[in-house]
From TrEMBL:
<keyword id="KW-0808">Transferase</keyword>
<dbReference type="GO" id="GO:0004084">
    <property type="term" value="F:branched-chain-amino-acid transaminase activity"/>
</dbReference>
<keyword id="KW-0663">Pyridoxal phosphate</keyword>
<protein>
    <submittedName>
        <fullName>Branched-chain amino acid aminotransferase</fullName>
    </submittedName>
</protein>
<dbReference type="GO" id="GO:0009081">
    <property type="term" value="P:branched-chain amino acid metabolic process"/>
</dbReference>
<keyword id="KW-0032">Aminotransferase</keyword>
<comment type="similarity">
    <text>Belongs to the class-IV pyridoxal-phosphate-dependent aminotransferase family.</text>
</comment>
């Protein structure tokens, strides 16, 4: 590297340090900031042939071509799953086979080489094993978030698929995603932008689906909403999903989640729907009209509770959703929807208090979410065989 101007300042590479695991305070909520771990697992596929994989210390990728298709044309996808330390001091990963299937779907849509299942599982297993010191202790909150990702690393100038793909599994210890720390949050419906196109790629976990949600999310956050909700892009009358996670709603007898070709099917959502069935709820995956949130379902049942669910957010209750509505004069006002189950407890202008939170234990979605967390931590029997290795 030579400076452009004689004696000019040149940006020096940053030596990203590996976090010393003994410096981590497991009692303090870790949040979802990035804590770097010892290293990652990397596989490369050239012209359709996968190598045998390597362990790489640290968190940087020094040999990437600047014309890699991922950097220019967004040929990239990722996954998220979690590993939990059980009382036997071993780490168990939640449903990695489901993440592999979803990654294969993302790869197929963007003409990328999907990693074979054995390499995917081996990368997850090795990444967790070599970063075992970063898996939160069994009796502390949190988990090791595991992030597999795959991208076109080969160079192209024309718009073509890459000849080379890099598949990496990295990880970081995490706590609660939202600052509310598991307490209910309020959501803003994104009125100005769509997350996906009607026949687009919303159901694939492609990297490019996420950057466009940053601006609306930032605007929403400055207005006090930690989470943004997207409606169906064709008619904007049905619920799709949150920027970070899937949408769940509960009535007295049913747990509902949107059927839409533009939502990403979350592994957490599949699991919650199964637990709902186990508890005698009718799980319904169907189109959900925004109007049902206030008027109830066609069979007259009010929607009592709403939540966001996904690997990162686990299950985060949503006590209020504000929907922007524009009148004939072009003036936009916010229509406030407070989930019926929270109505008596929450003064709509206040964040839910701890007392409201305790009262919220009547929330069936929170109950299902707590049961899921207990299964993941090994504190309840894993009757569905979700934890890996079994
Ligand atoms: C996950 O829940 O694992 C995700 O990938 C969502 C991401 C916005 C953190």
């Amino acid at each position: 590297v030579t400076p452009l101007a004689p004696g000019g300042h040149v940006h020096a590479p940053i030596a990203y340090p590996v976090t010393d695991p003994s410096s981590l305070d497991w009692d303090v909520g870790l949040g979802f900031g990035l804590i770097t771990t010892a290293g990652y697992v990397r596989y490369t596929c050239r012209s359709g042939v996968w190598d045998d994989g390597a362990w790489v210390a640290g968190s940087t990728l020094p040999d990437l071509h600047i014309m890699a298709t991922a950097l220019h044309y967004g040929q990239a996808c990722f996954e998220g799953l979690k590993a939990y330390r059980h009382a036997d001091d071993k780490a168990y990963v939640f449903r990695p086979h489901a993440n592999h299937s979803r990654m294969a779907k993302s790869c197929a849509r963007a003409l990328m080489e999907a990693p074979p299942l054995d390499k995917f599982l081996n990368a997850v297993r090795t990444c967790v094993a070599r970063n075992m010191a970063y898996v939160p202790p069994h009796d502390k909150p949190g988990a090791l978030y595991v992030r597999p990702f795959l991208f076109g690393s080969g160079p192209k100038l024309g718009l073509n698929e890459s000849d080379e793909y890099t598949f990496i599994v990295t990880c970081a210890p995490v706590g609660e995603y939202y600052k509310a720390g598991g307490k209910p949050v309020k959501a803003l419906v994104c009125g100005e932008h769509d997350r996906a196109a009607p026949k687009g790629v919303g159901s694939c976990k492609l990297a490019g689906n996420y950057a466009p949600t940053l601006l609306p999310a930032k605007e929403a956050k400055t207005q006090g909403y930690p989470i943004t909700l997207y409606l169906d892009p064709a008619t904007r009358t049905y619920v799709d999903e949150f920027a970070t996670s899937n949408f769940l709603a509960a009535t007295k007898t049913k747990i509902l989640t949107p059927d839409s070709n533009s939502v990403l099917e979350s592994v957490t959502r599949m699991s919650i729907m199964q637990l709902a069935r186990d508890h005698g709820f009718t799980p319904e995956t169907r189109r959900i009209k925004v109007s049902e949130l206030t008027e109830g379902t066609a069979d007259g049942e009010p929607i009592t509770h709403i939540a966001a669910c996904g690997t990162a957010v686990v299950l985060t209750p949503v006590y209020r959703i504000d929907v922007p509505e524009t009148d004939a004069t072009g003036k936009t006002t916010l229509r406030r929807i407070v989930a019926a189950g929270w109505k008596d407890m929450v003064d709509a202008d206040q964040e839910p208090t701890d007392a409201a939170m305790d009262a919220g234990e009547s929330d069936p979605l929170m109950k299902l979410g707590n049961e899921l967390r207990a299964i993941q931590k090994g504190q309840r029997p894993d009757t569905h065989g979700w934890l890996w290795p079994e």
